[in-house]
């Protein structure tokens, strides 16, 4: 089966979405659409999280009590669910960022390693 052509969109590694959501909520409480827009803007439009990925992740993080949600009325008079980081979520963010830093350093080391060729 032929490989599909590479896409211009970056695909998120499994497990990084939680980190990205927690980091985004560190900047302040947001509704789901606001989280998605903040991720797009902060990534210079390289990352796009669709609702089919975002909302299950938000619900999972809420069940884990690392984020909390409340219903509020938006400026447009619509009911929206506002998510915020909890104290447990802040601790988890620190741990996840530390793990992410170790992972990116390891990958950078592999990419920087010179290729040895057989003689």
Name some characteristics of this structure.
alpha+beta; Arc Repressor Mutant, subunit A; single chain; 119 residues; 3-stranded antiparallel sheet
Question: Any overview of this molecule?
Answer:
The protein has 119 residues and is of the alpha+beta class. It has a single domain, classed as Winged helix-like DNA-binding domain superfamily/Winged helix DNA-binding domain (Arc Repressor Mutant, subunit A). It is 51% helix and 13% strand. The chain is built from four helices and three strands. The protein has helices at 16-26, 32-42, 51-63, 87-112, and strands at residues 30-31, 67-73, 79-85. A three-stranded antiparallel sheet has the order 1-3-2. α1 crosses α4. It is elongated, with a radius of gyration of 18 Å. It starts with 15 loop residues before the first helix and ends in a 7-residue tail after the last helix. Residues 4-8 have low confidence and may be disordered.
């Amino acid at each position: 089966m032929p490989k599909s052509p590479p896409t211009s969109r970056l695909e998120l590694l499994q497990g990084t979405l939680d980190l990205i959501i927690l980091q985004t909520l560190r900047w302040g409480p947001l509704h789901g659409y606001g989280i998605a827009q903040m991720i797009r803007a902060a990534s210079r439009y390289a990352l796009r999280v669709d609702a089919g990925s975002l909302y299950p992740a938000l619900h999972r993080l809420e069940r884990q009590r690392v984020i909390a949600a409340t219903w509020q009325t938006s400026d447009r008079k619509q009911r929206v669910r506002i998510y915020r980081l909890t104290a447990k979520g802040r601790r988890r963010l620190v741990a996840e960022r530390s793990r992410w830093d170790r992972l990116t350093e390891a990958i950078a080391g592999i990419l920087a390693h010179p290729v040895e060729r057989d003689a």
